[in-house]
Write a structure and sequence with these properties.
Largest sheet: 2 strands, antiparallel
Number of helices: 6
Helix content: 55-70%
Oligomer: single chain
Strand order of the largest sheet: 1-2
Strand content: 5-15%
Number of domains: 2
Order of helices and strands: EEHHEEHHHH
Length: 176
Amino acid sequence: MITLPAGKFHTYTCAAEYGKAKADNIRDKAIKAKAKKEKSKHAKAKKELTDNDRSFQLKKTQSIFNKFIRDRDSKYPCISCNRFHSGQYHAGHYRTVGANPELRFDERNCHKQCSACNNHLSGNIVNYRISLINKMGVDFVEGLESHHPPKRYTLEDLKELQALYKRKTKELEDAS
């Protein structure tokens, strides 16, 4: 029996194999630590990119706004077909985001809408208009249909809107 600081071994070959395995283990740990550090560095860089990416922040803000609209109108039926469905609901814009980006985050322009009306019937806009007139009045609807000054949301605007609609959604959830 050979006695070394690491323990007792039958032969020098066993001791050498043990030493090689120990060195491999140390090397593997170093490789994993380096990979973890690189992953962390990559995640930080990605976060910085998305924090300063207007397109990403616009999508994120839209998602938070849409959730607020669905929660706000949860007790109401679809604005277009006036029915409750068991399926998915959307936040349907009366004046589309593509045609009127300045009304994208206007709460008065957006209401709970079933996916059938929003996707398959292109918003079911005729019935949407009728319901809006009944709900808000003809002057309001004509105001929505009139010209609005263009709006370009900055990163700061978008982050403020995210905070606002997160807070409003939380208030709705706390109230119910």
